[in-house]
């Protein structure tokens, strides 16, 4: 009996010392301590004492948490059962929508503005929720779902409340635009700001695009064995986060990838990578909005490219640069060649969060590092690439691509730890240069 009591006292003393290092449930149930009342036998060894001590300590594990702000309840600890005197856990009857709204709106969007959309009656339930955040398009937020169960939900429509909140943000942005002097400074030499960006961040800022081949299967096709001679031009390649994944996947010895950026430092970073070998892949400095003799990328002639990749690059151009950039892309593409585009959409979290002193023009902003970004409407891109752009004040025509597909990718991202909900919005499209150019504008009339 003395050994049993000693073990219990030792356990209580040990945890009083150790618990002070952690956050502890205020009321420790000392009745849960198990005291061995059987007298020890001569056959008992030191190992038996240690085992009993360990067993006596085990039930206390549930009351200790390494978190400085939140303690762990016994019912949530899979390693130990709750004490026999504890009441069984009761299921929660509070839905996520009934939880109090969090005051923290670090991201600029109150979490209370998001309501789960109702599931259409004709759509069957989706019992298997996708866990890979890069497989877009198949995780629907249905009525009754726990919003914080996953970190992303697809096709979540923006409700009227959030839309009104965003419009309030836009009005505040317009009321405090960039000063005229700074606006001219940011627009004069945009390549310099991106060059400084890559000098500071090198290859550490952007990650390789895991969704690349799922969203654009054409890139997987040209990299497949037996695809034959194919040329891919990436515009605004940055540090190679699109080009290098294509090289890694490539099984086509006749594939050629030309990665261009107008930031010299970005091109230096790509060339420093051994995968940029000058044969399968090469990197060049090129401004997509350049005119005259520099309108085409170095080493590429007119009608020489099968695929042009525009991923988060068109938004870096000012609206008055779009026309020249589109003509340059048109000229370098083969008849039947395609443009693959992904870019920012109006209403994206990044746009709503902009504060005063960042507004350059409607949907056009400058970031804190001096780089610019535009947020597109779907109809706007359809007009730009489809040649339907209003030309009331333009003497030049716009190229007319065939719109293969164009859509808005809306997603609600969730910070489950902080209970924050964030709307994201991107534009994604495929555009084709017609194989028959007899009814399309000639590049001779390009600006």
From TrEMBL:
<dbReference type="GO" id="GO:0052735">
    <property type="term" value="F:tRNA (cytidine-3-)-methyltransferase activity"/>
</dbReference>
<dbReference type="InterPro" id="IPR029063">
    <property type="entry name" value="SAM-dependent_MTases_sf"/>
</dbReference>
<dbReference type="InterPro" id="IPR026113">
    <property type="entry name" value="METTL2/6/8-like"/>
</dbReference>
<comment type="similarity">
    <text>Belongs to the methyltransferase superfamily. METL family.</text>
</comment>
<feature type="compositionally biased region" description="Pro residues">
    <location>
        <begin position="79"/>
        <end position="91"/>
    </location>
</feature>
<feature type="domain" description="Methyltransferase type 12">
    <location>
        <begin position="233"/>
        <end position="338"/>
    </location>
</feature>
<keyword id="KW-0489">Methyltransferase</keyword>
<feature type="region of interest" description="Disordered">
    <location>
        <begin position="64"/>
        <end position="136"/>
    </location>
</feature>
<dbReference type="Pfam" id="PF08242">
    <property type="entry name" value="Methyltransf_12"/>
</dbReference>
<dbReference type="InterPro" id="IPR013217">
    <property type="entry name" value="Methyltransf_12"/>
</dbReference>
<protein>
    <recommendedName>
        <fullName>Methyltransferase type 12 domain-containing protein</fullName>
    </recommendedName>
</protein>
<keyword id="KW-0808">Transferase</keyword>
<dbReference type="GO" id="GO:0032259">
    <property type="term" value="P:methylation"/>
</dbReference>
